[in-house]
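Standup notes, structure subgroup. Blocker cleared on the zinc ion input:
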Amino acid sequence: MTGTVITVAPTGAEVSKAEVAALPVTLDELVRTAKECEALGASIIHVHIRDDRAEPTLDQGRLRATVAALRESTDLIVQLSSGGAVTDPEADRLAVLDAGPEMASCTMGTVNFGDGVFLNRWEFIVELHTRMQERGIVPEYEIFDLGQLTTLQRLLGKHGLPAGGHVHVDLVMGVPGGMPGTTAALAACEQAIRDLPAGTTFSATGIGRSTIPVMLASLSAGGHLRVGMEDTITYAKGQPVESNMQLVARAAGFAQLAQRPPVTPADARSLLGVPAR
Ligand code: KMH
Ligand code: ZN
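Run returned:
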Protein backbone atom coordinates (compact mmCIF):
# COMPACT_ATOMS: atom_id res chain seq x y z
CA MET A 1 0.00 0.00 0.00
CA THR A 2 1.83 3.09 -1.16
CA GLY A 3 -1.06 5.52 -1.59
CA THR A 4 -2.67 7.89 0.88
CA VAL A 5 -6.19 7.70 2.24
CA ILE A 6 -7.43 11.26 2.63
CA THR A 7 -10.36 11.81 4.98
CA VAL A 8 -12.23 15.08 4.86
CA ALA A 9 -13.88 16.21 8.10
CA PRO A 10 -15.79 19.18 6.73
CA THR A 11 -17.96 20.43 9.59
CA GLY A 12 -17.39 19.06 13.11
CA ALA A 13 -19.43 20.13 16.10
CA GLU A 14 -17.43 23.03 17.44
CA VAL A 15 -16.94 25.65 14.72
CA SER A 16 -19.70 28.27 14.61
CA LYS A 17 -21.38 29.01 11.26
CA ALA A 18 -21.92 32.59 12.43
CA GLU A 19 -18.15 33.00 12.75
CA VAL A 20 -17.09 30.88 9.76
CA ALA A 21 -19.50 31.42 6.85
CA ALA A 22 -17.73 28.86 4.63
CA LEU A 23 -18.55 25.98 7.02
CA PRO A 24 -20.87 23.48 5.27
CA VAL A 25 -23.92 22.99 7.52
CA THR A 26 -26.90 22.27 5.25
CA LEU A 27 -27.32 18.98 3.42
CA ASP A 28 -26.87 20.76 0.10
CA GLU A 29 -23.65 22.39 1.28
CA LEU A 30 -22.38 19.07 2.63
CA VAL A 31 -23.13 17.14 -0.57
CA ARG A 32 -21.53 19.81 -2.75
CA THR A 33 -18.45 19.79 -0.51
CA ALA A 34 -18.31 16.00 -0.58
CA LYS A 35 -18.42 15.84 -4.38
CA GLU A 36 -15.71 18.46 -4.80
CA CYS A 37 -13.47 16.90 -2.16
CA GLU A 38 -13.84 13.48 -3.78
CA ALA A 39 -12.74 14.96 -7.11
CA LEU A 40 -9.66 16.39 -5.37
CA GLY A 41 -8.58 13.09 -3.77
CA ALA A 42 -10.63 12.47 -0.63
CA SER A 43 -11.83 8.89 -0.12
CA ILE A 44 -13.59 9.14 3.28
CA ILE A 45 -15.93 11.76 4.66
CA HIS A 46 -16.18 12.09 8.47
CA VAL A 47 -19.62 13.54 9.07
CA HIS A 48 -21.14 15.72 11.79
CA ILE A 49 -24.45 17.34 10.94
CA ARG A 50 -26.19 20.55 11.98
CA ASP A 51 -29.82 21.56 12.51
CA ASP A 52 -31.74 24.45 10.92
CA ARG A 53 -30.00 26.88 13.27
CA ALA A 54 -26.61 25.40 12.28
CA GLU A 55 -26.22 23.86 15.74
CA PRO A 56 -24.80 20.31 16.06
CA THR A 57 -27.46 17.60 16.13
CA LEU A 58 -27.68 13.80 16.15
CA ASP A 59 -31.26 13.82 14.83
CA GLN A 60 -31.89 10.35 13.42
CA GLY A 61 -33.96 11.50 10.41
CA ARG A 62 -31.30 13.96 9.36
CA LEU A 63 -28.53 11.41 9.85
CA ARG A 64 -30.31 8.89 7.63
CA ALA A 65 -31.02 11.51 4.96
CA THR A 66 -27.37 12.54 5.07
CA VAL A 67 -26.07 8.99 4.64
CA ALA A 68 -28.49 8.42 1.74
CA ALA A 69 -27.61 11.69 -0.01
CA LEU A 70 -23.85 11.17 0.29
CA ARG A 71 -24.11 7.60 -1.00
CA GLU A 72 -26.26 8.73 -3.90
CA SER A 73 -24.01 11.62 -4.93
CA THR A 74 -20.53 10.28 -4.22
CA ASP A 75 -18.51 7.09 -3.89
CA LEU A 76 -16.88 8.37 -0.67
CA ILE A 77 -16.86 6.09 2.38
CA VAL A 78 -19.43 7.64 4.70
CA GLN A 79 -18.11 7.70 8.27
CA LEU A 80 -20.55 9.11 10.81
CA SER A 81 -19.21 10.66 13.99
CA SER A 82 -20.32 8.84 17.11
CA GLY A 83 -18.52 11.52 19.09
CA GLY A 84 -21.01 14.26 18.33
CA ALA A 85 -20.62 17.31 20.54
CA VAL A 86 -19.33 17.14 24.12
CA THR A 87 -22.90 17.77 25.33
CA ASP A 88 -24.44 14.78 23.50
CA PRO A 89 -25.78 11.94 25.68
CA GLU A 90 -24.41 8.43 25.26
CA ALA A 91 -27.76 7.03 24.04
CA ASP A 92 -27.90 9.49 21.14
CA ARG A 93 -24.28 8.75 20.26
CA LEU A 94 -24.99 5.01 20.16
CA ALA A 95 -28.10 5.63 18.05
CA VAL A 96 -25.90 7.17 15.33
CA LEU A 97 -25.19 3.58 14.27
CA ASP A 98 -28.91 3.11 13.46
CA ALA A 99 -28.46 5.47 10.50
CA GLY A 100 -26.50 2.71 8.73
CA PRO A 101 -23.11 4.24 7.91
CA GLU A 102 -20.29 2.15 6.42
CA MET A 103 -17.93 3.47 9.08
CA ALA A 104 -18.26 5.31 12.38
CA SER A 105 -15.77 6.88 14.74
CA CYS A 106 -15.14 5.26 18.12
CA THR A 107 -13.03 7.22 20.60
CA MET A 108 -10.75 5.29 22.95
CA GLY A 109 -11.05 7.34 26.12
CA THR A 110 -12.13 10.44 27.96
CA VAL A 111 -10.21 13.61 27.24
CA ASN A 112 -10.39 17.23 28.30
CA PHE A 113 -11.61 19.07 25.21
CA GLY A 114 -10.93 22.79 25.49
CA ASP A 115 -13.25 23.93 28.27
CA GLY A 116 -15.38 20.77 27.98
CA VAL A 117 -14.89 17.07 28.65
CA PHE A 118 -15.27 14.54 25.84
CA LEU A 119 -16.56 11.61 27.87
CA ASN A 120 -15.87 8.07 26.69
CA ARG A 121 -16.29 5.58 29.53
CA TRP A 122 -14.91 2.05 29.10
CA GLU A 123 -18.40 0.48 29.14
CA PHE A 124 -19.56 2.94 26.49
CA ILE A 125 -16.54 2.16 24.28
CA VAL A 126 -17.28 -1.57 24.58
CA GLU A 127 -20.94 -0.99 23.67
CA LEU A 128 -20.01 1.04 20.57
CA HIS A 129 -17.38 -1.49 19.48
CA THR A 130 -19.65 -4.53 19.88
CA ARG A 131 -22.66 -2.89 18.22
CA MET A 132 -20.46 -2.02 15.25
CA GLN A 133 -19.21 -5.62 15.12
CA GLU A 134 -22.80 -6.92 15.08
CA ARG A 135 -23.89 -4.52 12.33
CA GLY A 136 -20.84 -4.75 10.08
CA ILE A 137 -19.94 -1.08 10.59
CA VAL A 138 -16.19 -0.52 10.34
CA PRO A 139 -14.81 1.64 13.17
CA GLU A 140 -12.19 4.30 12.97
CA TYR A 141 -10.66 4.34 16.45
CA GLU A 142 -10.06 7.96 17.43
CA ILE A 143 -6.96 8.49 19.55
CA PHE A 144 -6.51 11.78 21.43
CA ASP A 145 -3.69 10.65 23.70
CA LEU A 146 -0.96 7.98 23.71
CA GLY A 147 -2.56 5.82 26.44
CA GLN A 148 -5.71 5.45 24.34
CA LEU A 149 -3.74 3.12 22.04
CA THR A 150 -3.24 0.84 25.04
CA THR A 151 -6.99 1.03 25.69
CA LEU A 152 -7.54 -0.06 22.08
CA GLN A 153 -5.18 -3.00 22.58
CA ARG A 154 -7.21 -3.99 25.67
CA LEU A 155 -10.50 -3.59 23.78
CA LEU A 156 -9.37 -5.80 20.89
CA GLY A 157 -7.91 -8.37 23.30
CA LYS A 158 -11.13 -8.67 25.29
CA HIS A 159 -13.75 -8.15 22.56
CA GLY A 160 -12.13 -9.12 19.28
CA LEU A 161 -11.35 -7.51 15.97
CA PRO A 162 -13.73 -5.01 14.37
CA ALA A 163 -16.06 -5.74 11.48
CA GLY A 164 -13.95 -6.42 8.40
CA GLY A 165 -11.02 -7.63 10.52
CA HIS A 166 -8.81 -4.62 9.83
CA VAL A 167 -7.81 -2.11 12.52
CA HIS A 168 -7.59 1.56 11.55
CA VAL A 169 -6.88 4.40 13.96
CA ASP A 170 -6.98 8.16 13.58
CA LEU A 171 -4.60 10.25 15.67
CA VAL A 172 -6.36 13.49 16.59
CA MET A 173 -3.48 15.65 17.75
CA GLY A 174 -3.27 19.11 19.25
CA VAL A 175 -6.65 19.20 21.03
CA PRO A 176 -6.29 21.38 24.15
CA GLY A 177 -6.34 18.56 26.72
CA GLY A 178 -4.89 15.84 24.49
CA MET A 179 -1.49 14.97 23.04
CA PRO A 180 0.43 17.69 21.18
CA GLY A 181 0.52 17.86 17.40
CA THR A 182 4.24 17.19 17.06
CA THR A 183 6.47 14.80 15.15
CA ALA A 184 7.70 13.37 18.48
CA ALA A 185 4.16 12.59 19.66
CA LEU A 186 3.28 11.04 16.31
CA ALA A 187 6.42 8.91 16.39
CA ALA A 188 5.50 7.69 19.90
CA CYS A 189 2.04 6.72 18.64
CA GLU A 190 3.50 5.00 15.57
CA GLN A 191 5.70 2.94 17.91
CA ALA A 192 2.68 1.97 20.06
CA ILE A 193 0.67 1.05 16.95
CA ARG A 194 3.23 -1.70 16.33
CA ASP A 195 1.76 -3.50 19.37
CA LEU A 196 -1.66 -3.59 17.67
CA PRO A 197 -2.62 -6.34 15.19
CA ALA A 198 -0.31 -6.69 12.18
CA GLY A 199 -1.41 -4.46 9.33
CA THR A 200 -3.02 -1.80 11.54
CA THR A 201 -3.16 1.48 9.63
CA PHE A 202 -3.36 5.02 10.92
CA SER A 203 -4.26 8.47 9.77
CA ALA A 204 -3.49 11.69 11.60
CA THR A 205 -4.86 15.19 11.87
CA GLY A 206 -3.41 18.17 13.68
CA ILE A 207 -5.82 20.70 15.16
CA GLY A 208 -5.22 24.35 14.32
CA ARG A 209 -1.64 25.31 13.63
CA SER A 210 -0.39 21.75 14.11
CA THR A 211 -2.10 20.70 10.87
CA ILE A 212 0.99 20.97 8.63
CA PRO A 213 3.57 19.42 11.01
CA VAL A 214 1.21 16.51 11.67
CA MET A 215 0.49 16.03 7.97
CA LEU A 216 4.18 15.91 7.08
CA ALA A 217 5.01 13.63 10.02
CA SER A 218 2.19 11.25 9.14
CA LEU A 219 3.22 10.99 5.49
CA SER A 220 6.81 10.33 6.44
CA ALA A 221 5.78 7.63 8.94
CA GLY A 222 3.58 5.79 6.43
CA GLY A 223 0.34 7.21 7.80
CA HIS A 224 -2.74 8.58 6.08
CA LEU A 225 -4.29 12.06 6.36
CA ARG A 226 -7.40 13.71 7.73
CA VAL A 227 -8.05 17.35 6.97
CA GLY A 228 -11.04 19.65 7.09
CA MET A 229 -12.73 22.58 8.77
CA GLU A 230 -13.65 20.40 11.76
CA ASP A 231 -9.96 20.61 12.67
CA THR A 232 -8.54 23.70 10.97
CA ILE A 233 -10.07 27.05 10.06
CA THR A 234 -6.83 28.94 9.41
CA TYR A 235 -4.96 28.09 6.21
CA ALA A 236 -1.83 30.07 7.06
CA LYS A 237 -1.03 32.81 9.55
CA GLY A 238 -3.70 35.50 9.15
CA GLN A 239 -5.42 33.62 6.30
CA PRO A 240 -8.76 31.96 7.06
CA VAL A 241 -9.58 28.69 5.30
CA GLU A 242 -11.75 29.41 2.26
CA SER A 243 -13.21 25.93 1.90
CA ASN A 244 -12.69 22.27 2.72
CA MET A 245 -11.60 21.84 -0.88
CA GLN A 246 -8.63 24.11 -0.24
CA LEU A 247 -7.52 21.82 2.60
CA VAL A 248 -8.04 18.59 0.63
CA ALA A 249 -6.15 20.05 -2.33
CA ARG A 250 -3.21 20.90 -0.06
CA ALA A 251 -3.23 17.42 1.49
CA ALA A 252 -3.38 15.78 -1.94
CA GLY A 253 -0.46 17.95 -3.06
CA PHE A 254 1.66 16.92 -0.06
CA ALA A 255 0.73 13.27 -0.68
CA GLN A 256 1.81 13.58 -4.32
CA LEU A 257 5.10 15.17 -3.28
CA ALA A 258 5.66 12.28 -0.87
CA GLN A 259 5.08 9.92 -3.82
CA ARG A 260 2.10 8.49 -1.99
CA PRO A 261 -0.76 9.79 -4.14
CA PRO A 262 -4.37 9.83 -2.93
CA VAL A 263 -6.19 6.51 -3.29
CA THR A 264 -9.68 6.09 -4.69
CA PRO A 265 -12.63 5.32 -2.42
CA ALA A 266 -12.66 1.77 -3.86
CA ASP A 267 -9.02 1.25 -2.88
CA ALA A 268 -9.66 2.75 0.55
CA ARG A 269 -12.56 0.30 1.05
CA SER A 270 -10.33 -2.62 0.20
CA LEU A 271 -7.55 -1.38 2.52
CA LEU A 272 -9.87 -0.76 5.48
CA GLY A 273 -12.04 -3.86 5.19
CA VAL A 274 -15.14 -1.89 4.18
CA PRO A 275 -17.32 -3.93 1.77
CA ALA A 276 -17.11 -2.81 -1.87
CA ARG A 277 -20.12 -0.93 -3.19
N1 KMH B 1 -16.66 16.79 18.55
C1 KMH B 1 -15.84 16.12 19.50
C2 KMH B 1 -16.36 16.29 20.89
C3 KMH B 1 -15.64 12.14 16.71
O1 KMH B 1 -16.15 12.71 15.74
O2 KMH B 1 -15.79 10.96 16.92
C4 KMH B 1 -15.69 14.69 19.20
C5 KMH B 1 -15.28 14.31 17.85
C6 KMH B 1 -14.81 12.92 17.68
O3 KMH B 1 -15.36 15.06 16.89
ZN1 ZN C 1 -15.53 14.39 14.57
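Discussed briefly. Residues 54 and 219 are 34 Å apart (CA to CA).
Next: hand off to the docking folks.
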